[in-house]
């Protein structure tokens, strides 16, 4: 084998190695699934197609709208205010180098996938102003670098996971205007470490059943006792009415039966 041939072989191996590093199968899976779970009626993402998903990044640039790359991997996904519909694919977790995920101001429905927990580099999670439902996944606590959690203006239900208070880098937290319930965790509103920011009422307001500092305490007991009494009296009355009607119907039916029987008997009896 001559030297030139050997050089060629090495070069070829080198090139295959480089390209195999550059086209990342995780990012491709991430984009392919996201493209399937979202709908884009305004055609805002017109250059999003299967062909480009296999190689979304050229070093630090991307031709795909809303995507920024670093070292051949997607690190920022900003698809805000594009009238997108559909749901958030759990396979977004395949974009393992993601630092920013901004899907704010769209019409996205469905839950926040707990699978996002594997985005260990995530610093910004802005899903505000959508129609997201379900509970806030406590697993998000595993995204230890989270700086920003913005879920305001959605339809989220259930409690605020108190584990989120473990996110020591959190500088912005907004869950206002949802349908959350339960006590506000002191781990967010009254954090024990003086270096950590405490989130004030503006982070929590607009949730009918959320209570406790910095919002007002749980509604007074007087009201709930009143409600219990009213419910008791109401159901008592209802069962009385139901049983009365029952008795009336029974009486009527037996009356009619008796009348019928008597009629039959008188019919069978010969007239003398
Ligand atoms: C994508 O993520 C899923 C579930 O987390 C995993 O099973 C799959 O192997 C990942 N695919 C790639 C190409 O990384
Ligand atoms: C997904 O890709 C198809 C074409 O491959 C395109 O028509 C569709 O609009 C894409 N969806 C999104 C959300 O970009
Ligand atoms: C990658 O981008 C550089 C400039 O940023 C360009 O010169 C090069 O042709 C691009 N490569 C591909 C494969 O698109
Ligand atoms: C959202 O997009 C619409 C239409 O392109 C535009 O009129 C509006 O100003 C945008 N809103 C924000 C907050 O960027
Ligand atoms: C999408 O289209 C609708 C109506 O066709 C329009 O009202 C809206 O502003 C558009 N959104 C964006 C972000 O361009
Ligand atoms: C999240 O996105 C919305 C609009 O898309 C923006 O107004 C808001 O400031 C962002 N949240 C944070 C904490 O940056
Ligand atoms: C905040 O925490 C401190 C110490 O744990 C406690 O004494 C204080 O009552 C709390 N404040 C509120 C408003 O809950
Ligand atoms: C609540 O905190 C935000 C920043 O997180 C600040 O802009 C706002 O002024 C604060 N509101 C009050 C009433 O302290």
Describe the structure.
It comes from Medicago truncatula. GO terms for molecular function: kinase activity. By secondary structure, the protein is an alpha/beta fold. It has two domains: 15-217, Ribonuclease Inhibitor (Leucine-rich repeat, LRR (right-handed beta-alpha superhelix)); 219-272. It contains five helices and eleven strands. Strands 2-3-5-6-7-9 form a six-stranded mixed β-sheet, with no helix packed on it. Strand 2 (67-70) and strand 3 (73-78) form a beta hairpin.
Give a concise summary:
By secondary structure, this protein is α/β, with parallel strands linked by helices. Helices cover 33% and strands 13% of the residues. 24% of the residues are buried.
What global shape is seen? elongated
Low-confidence stretches: 15-21
Q: How are strands sequenced across the largest beta sheet?
A: 2-3-5-6-7-9
Could you give a short account of the major beta sheet?
6 strands, mixed
Number of strands: 11
CATH homologous superfamily of the largest domain, by name?
Answer: Ribonuclease Inhibitor
Give the tally of structural domains.
2
In CATH terms, what is the architecture of the largest domain?
Answer: Alpha-Beta Horseshoe
> Class of the largest domain in CATH?
Alpha Beta
Classify the beta-strand content into a percent band. 5-15%
Provide the CATH topology of the largest domain. Answer: Leucine-rich repeat, LRR (right-handed beta-alpha superhelix)
Features:
272 residues, 33% helix, binds 2-acetamido-2-deoxy-beta-D-glucopyranose, Leucine-rich repeat, LRR (right-handed beta-alpha superhelix), six-stranded mixed beta sheet, three-stranded parallel beta sheet, alpha/beta
């Amino acid at each position: 084998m001559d030297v030139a041939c050997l050089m060629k072989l090495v070069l070829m191996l080198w090139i295959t190695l480089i390209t195999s590093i550059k086209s990342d199968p995780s990012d491709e899976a991430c984009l392919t699934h996201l493209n399937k779970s979202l709908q884009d009626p305004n055609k805002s993402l017109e250059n999003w197609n299967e062909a480009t998903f296999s190689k979304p990044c050229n070093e630090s640039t991307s031709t795909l709208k809303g995507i920024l790359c670093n070292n051949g991997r997607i690190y920022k996904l900003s698809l805000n205010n594009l009238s997108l519909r559909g749901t958030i694919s759990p396979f977004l977790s395949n974009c393992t180098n993601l630092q920013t995920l901004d899907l704010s101001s769209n019409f996205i429905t469905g839950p926040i996938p707990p699978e996002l927990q594997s985005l260990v580099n995530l610093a910004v999670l802005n899903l505000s102003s959508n129609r997201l439902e379900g509970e806030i996944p406590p697993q998000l606590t595993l995204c230890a670098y989270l700086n920003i959690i913005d879920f305001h203006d959605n339809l989220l239900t259930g409690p605020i996971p108190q584990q989120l208070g473990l996110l020591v880098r959190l500088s912005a937290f907004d869950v206002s205007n949802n349908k959350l319930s339960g006590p506000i965790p002191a781990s967010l509103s009254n954090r024990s470490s003086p270096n950590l920011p405490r989130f004030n009422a503006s982070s929590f307001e607009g949730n009918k059943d959320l209570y406790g500092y910095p919002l007002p305490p749980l509604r007074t007991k007087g009201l709930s006792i009143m409600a219990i009494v009213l419910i008791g009296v109401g159901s008592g009355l209802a069962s009385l009415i139901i049983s009365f009607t029952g008795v009336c119907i029974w009486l009527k039916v037996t009356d009619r039966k008796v009348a019928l029987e008597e009629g039959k008997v008188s019919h069978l009896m010969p007239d003398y």
